[in-house]
């Protein structure tokens, strides 16, 4: 080989192994310097001092066998320190202040999360499937390639930062650090305090409780302990059936008071609102509750109980100056924000190895370790496998399901887009109420979650049937098919839930649940009644079935008045919508139905009386249902007694009546579910001497029969009150087919 090339190769090798000077490192460029030169080319050109650190070692540091970074590096350092301490028998020199047991617990917890767990042999043999072992190995191999929190970059940073913080610093990590502490004059942070401040910035979310003597209503003298105990008992006896999410076994007075002053005050204020003799106490507590809500928002407090507090205040919120001035949507948004911050949308999975294979069916981003969930809520010393630990974890799931049900109802009633996502817990909540630690209201929560979750698929199925309709198809056959689809949907629901949550020997649904279910059925028809591709026969079926459902909503409200004294605002909106819906449809009918429209008018006046009585009882309640009742009463007065006159129908419309008449026997309940089907109804007389049905005294099936017996030829062209005029409350968006609830 040429000596020159050998010398060049030698210089290149030597130059490549020489350490770069500080100037070149700062500029991140190659440091070019000959073997005998004391200054590099860059420093020579800039006429600056060329400083090369003496402690620089080429390649890996001495003793390092692999390259680890981030959380993996921290775990390796802990493991090596523990081995060294046990080998020498000397106490561990731990600058962070952790003891050896604490480090061992931290190491085992982290390893259980990072390393794949192999199911035991007994479990594998019990399955009996030859491919189960290979399948498990495949799952573990895939899990070994997974990265925790890969879908959440901020959470990944938080987990890495938490491993670097001492235990004392972790407990103080929720405290805010001033922005000035993160800044540095030269843009580089070198001190340990600055590094700790940056690590604190990325710590995971923890519960931040809103408690203290300056927040507690008893410590402030707003109520006595005896009054608080009385109000708590009243809430669970009279109000909890309309506001789901609380478990009386967990949410006792002492527990709620120690977790959230906002929830504690909200329960007291909600109960005092319905006790006639507690007007002054109700006013004091309501004012304090509103103040706490603002402090929670500004102070960024977070806990499961704060989520429940925001939801608990939604049903009985006082109306503002206008229909859209209340805080309902703001409270729902805050409840969702805090819930997602605390990972309530994630499925709690056990830490036990035998349950690991089941948990791997879910994405890691959809799961949270049970111990981690308790630590996040502030229960560090609670065993997740104990009864108390399981109840605390179930309270997280109950809060999320309740939030889903409430948010769906609020959005459907107010014409807003859904925001609470359908997570794996909602997708698989059919058997959630079956548990040894269940609450009495868990069945009602799960039943409504299933109904509102599956309503979207029913909408898609009905609209798809209409969209696929062709001119060569028979409209009556399409109508029968859609009727069977809707009937099968609700029959399946009743077959499961009427028995699970029904009351008494006849397994009747609770009044609040009954109204929700009937109105959900009404929303099915109102959501597709104006679908552009629906045949005429299908639209006739939608109108007749929708009229029957709307009358049943009002009938259920009147008959269940004694058990609906705590009627939520959303229920009042549902009833008002049903009244407007029935008034519009009954005025669009022509034929021998002169007794139908007056009967509907009388029913609306009765339900208006109910709404006004409920909203004004007791006198200090100031319920929003009073306004809805007055609105319905004024609406009925503006509608003429005979809103239409029946014109002479042409041949084509007469041809559709017979085929449509077969569509009417659409009972809301399966046979024997709630009432006995009876075809004999006794009409009364109205003030004008016309025959008039007393719908409020009928059963749901009797109302269906009354609609069947009427000559229901529909006239959409001539009606004195247009649909836009009927739905005068624009902010409800009642005419929107996508939000028909």
Helix and strand layout, with pairings?
Blueprint: H1 3-17, H2 22-27, H3 41-46, H4 70-88, H5 100-114, H6 121-127, H7 132-144, H8 153-164, H9 167-171, H10 192-201, H11 225-239, H12 253-259, H13 261-272, H14 279-299, H15 304-313, H16 328-341, E1 347-349, H17 356-359, E2 367-369, H18 370-376, H19 387-414, H20 424-427, H21 442-467, H22 475-501, H23 511-526, H24 536-559, H25 569-586, E3 589-590, H26 596-615, H27 625-638, H28 651-661, E4 684-685, E5 691-692, H29 700-709, E6 713-714, H30 723-726
Parallel strand pairs: 1-2
Antiparallel strand pairs: 3-6, 4-5
Helix pairs in contact: 4-5, 4-8, 11-13, 13-14, 13-15, 15-16, 15-19, 16-19, 19-21, 21-22, 21-23, 22-24, 23-24, 23-25, 24-25, 24-26, 24-29, 25-26, 25-27, 26-27
Summarize the structure.
With 741 residues, this protein is an all-alpha fold.
Describe this structure in words.
- The protein has 741 residues and is mainly alpha-helical.
- Among the domains are: 3-46, no CATH class; 225-427, no CATH class; 442-467 and 475-642 and 651-669 and 710-732, no CATH class.
- It is built from 30 helices and 6 strands.
- It has helices at residues 3-17, 22-27, 41-46, 70-88, 100-114, 121-127, 132-144, 153-164, 167-171, 192-201, 225-239, 253-259, 261-272, 279-299, 304-313, 328-341, 356-359, 370-376, 387-414, 424-427, 442-467, 475-501, 511-526, 536-559, 569-586, 596-615, 625-638, 651-661, 700-709, 723-726; strands at 347-349, 367-369, 589-590, 684-685, 691-692, 713-714.
- A two-stranded parallel ribbon has the order 1-2. Strands 3-6 form a two-stranded antiparallel ribbon. A two-stranded antiparallel sheet has the order 4-5.
- Strand 1 (347-349), helix 17 and strand 2 form a beta-alpha-beta unit.
- Helix 22 runs parallel beside helix 24 (536-559) and helix 24 crosses helix 26 (596-615).
- The radius of gyration is 34 Å and the shape is elongated.
- The N and C termini lie far apart (88 Å).
- Residues 4-16, 92-98, 115-145, 171-187, 353-357, 642-689 and 713-741 have low confidence and may be disordered.
- InterPro entries: prtT, Zn2-C6_fun-type_DNA-bd_sf, Zn2Cys6_DnaBD.
- One of its GO terms (cellular component) is nucleus.
- Its main location: nucleus.
- It is found in: Nucleus.
- One of its GO terms (molecular function) is zinc ion binding.
């Amino acid at each position: 080989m040429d000596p020159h090339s050998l010398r060049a190769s030698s210089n290149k090798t030597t130059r490549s192994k020489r350490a770069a000077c500080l100037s070149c490192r700062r500029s991140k460029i190659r440091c070019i310097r000959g073997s005998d030169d004391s200054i590099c080319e860059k420093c020579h050109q800039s006429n600056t001092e060329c400083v090369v650190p003496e402690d620089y070692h080429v390649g890996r540091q001495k003793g390092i066998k692999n390259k680890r970074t981030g959380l993996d590096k921290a775990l390796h350092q802990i493991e090596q320190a523990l081995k060294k301490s046990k080998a020498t028998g000397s106490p561990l020199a731990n600058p962070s202040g952790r003891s050896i047991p604490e480090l061992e617990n931290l190491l085992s917890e982290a390893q259980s999360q990072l390393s794949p767990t192999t199911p035991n042999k007994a479990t594998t043999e019990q399955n009996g499937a030859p491919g189960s072992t290979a399948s498990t190995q495949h799952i573990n191999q895939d899990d070994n390639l997974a990265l925790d929190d890969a879908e959440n970059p901020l959470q990944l940073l938080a987990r890495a930062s938490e491993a670097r913080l001492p235990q004392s610093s972790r407990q103080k990590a929720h405290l805010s650090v001033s922005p000035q502490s993160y800044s540095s004059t030269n843009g580089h942070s070198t001190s340990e305090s600055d590094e700790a401040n940056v690590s604190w910035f990325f710590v995971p979310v923890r519960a931040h409780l809103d408690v203290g003597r300056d927040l507690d209503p008893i410590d402030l003298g707003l109520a006595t302990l005896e009054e608080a105990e009385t109000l708590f008992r009243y809430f669970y006896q009279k109000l909890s059936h309309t506001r789901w999410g609380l478990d009386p076994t967990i949410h006792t007075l002492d527990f709620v008071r120690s977790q959230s002053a906002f929830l504690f005050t909200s329960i007291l204020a909600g109960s005092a609102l319905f006790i006639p003799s507690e007007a002054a106490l109700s006013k004091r507590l309501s004012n304090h509750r509103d103040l706490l809500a603002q402090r929670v928002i500004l102070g960024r407090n977070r806990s499961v109980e704060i989520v429940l507090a925001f939801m608990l205040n939604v049903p009985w919120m006082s109306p503002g100056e206008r229909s859209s001035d209340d805080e309902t949507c703001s409270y729902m948004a805050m409840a969702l924000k805090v819930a997602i911050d605390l990972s309530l949308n994630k499925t709690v999975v056990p830490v036990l190895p035998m349950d690991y294979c089941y948990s791997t069916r879910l994405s890691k981003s959809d799961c949270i370790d049970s111990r981690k969930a308790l630590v996040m809520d502030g229960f560090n010393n609670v065993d997740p496998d104990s009864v108390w630990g399981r109840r605390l974890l179930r309270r997280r799931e109950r809060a999320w399901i309740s939030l889903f049900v409430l948010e769906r109802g609020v959005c459907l009633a107010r014409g807003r887009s859904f925001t609470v996502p359908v997570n794996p817990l909602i997708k698989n909540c059919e058997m959630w109420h079956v548990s040894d630690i269940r609450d009495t209201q868990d069945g009602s929560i799960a039943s409504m979650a299933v109904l509102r979750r599956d309503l979207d698929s029913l909408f898609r199925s009905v609209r798809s049937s209409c969209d696929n309709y062709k001119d060569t198809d028979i409209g009556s056959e399409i109508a029968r098919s859609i009727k069977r689809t809707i009937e099968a949907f609700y029959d399946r629901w009743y077959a499961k839930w009427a028995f699970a949550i029904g009351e008494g020997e006849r397994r009747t649904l609770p009044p609040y649940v009954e109204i929700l279910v009937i109105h959900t059925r009404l929303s099915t028809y109102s959501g597709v009644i104006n679908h552009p591709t629906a045949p005429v026969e299908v639209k006739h079926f939608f109108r007749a079935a929708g009229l029957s459902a709307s009358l049943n909503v009002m009938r259920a409200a009147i008959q269940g008045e004694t058990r609906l004294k705590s009627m939520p605002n959303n229920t009042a909106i549902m009833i008002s919508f049903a009244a407007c819906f029935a008034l519009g449809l009954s005025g669009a009918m022509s034929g021998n139905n002169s007794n139908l429209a007056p009967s509907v008018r009388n029913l609306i006046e009765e339900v208006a009386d109910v709404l006004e009585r409920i909203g004004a009882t007791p006198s200090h309640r100031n319920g929003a249902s009073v306004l809805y009742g007055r609105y319905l009463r004024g609406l009925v007065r503006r509608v003429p007694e005979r809103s239409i006159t029946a014109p002479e129908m042409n041949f084509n419309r007469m041809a559709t009546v017979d085929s449509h008449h077969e569509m009417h026997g659409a009972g809301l309940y399966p046979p024997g579910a709630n009432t006995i089907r009876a075809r004999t109804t006794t009409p009364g007389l109205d003030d004008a001497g016309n025959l008039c049905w007393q719908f409020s005294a009928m059963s749901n099936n009797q109302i269906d029969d009354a609609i069947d017996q009427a000559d229901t030829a529909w006239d959409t062209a001539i009606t004195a009150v247009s649909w836009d005029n009927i739905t005068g409350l624009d902010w409800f968006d009642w005419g929107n087919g996508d939000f028909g609830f």
